[in-house]
Amino acid sequence: MKDIYQRLDEILPKIVQPDFRKNKGLGNEIGFYVFDYNAEHELLVRDRVKFIKEKAKSAYGLNIIEFDLYEVILEILESKGYLKKNFEMEQKKNSEYVFNATRKTLRLTLDNDLVVQYIKERLDGNDIVFLTGIGKAWPIVRSHTILNNLHRVVEEQPLIMFFPGTYNGGTLMLFDHLKDDNYYRAFELIDKY
What is the pTM of this model? Predict the structure, then answer.
């Protein structure tokens, strides 16, 4: 079994391949990939994501755009004037109440989903999409939900979700403890063996 360092080292050589960026060989499936890892490696993965983005740009001229879901949520709430209200609401109510209110504010899973709109507005000119912050954004945004909703807007670029947990080709298990709904449309980016 490969360790986390071996798997991380295989990402850049894979994503710089022209066929990868053109989504070739996927049987007409959309180019969504999952790089799963043990949550204890979160800081290592964050550092390596930054390195991969910089190296892909400087050595290969590739534009990779990263969307940290947690940061996206905060930016949307701030722009709508709701972030401070959420903090106040949490003090008066409870976290579950704030989570539900935030989901409604973000219009998650609706046609006018604000997270999906945010990502869609920033895709032009980018070769690859990195989706990070999955663990930080839970339970407001769930991994299978965001992937299902992004299918309608991320079509040209491959998307790689960096997932702190396990993906077995059908089930997403966040932090190896929280079972998300099944998701069968993504491919494993780097195998473990």
Answer: 0.91
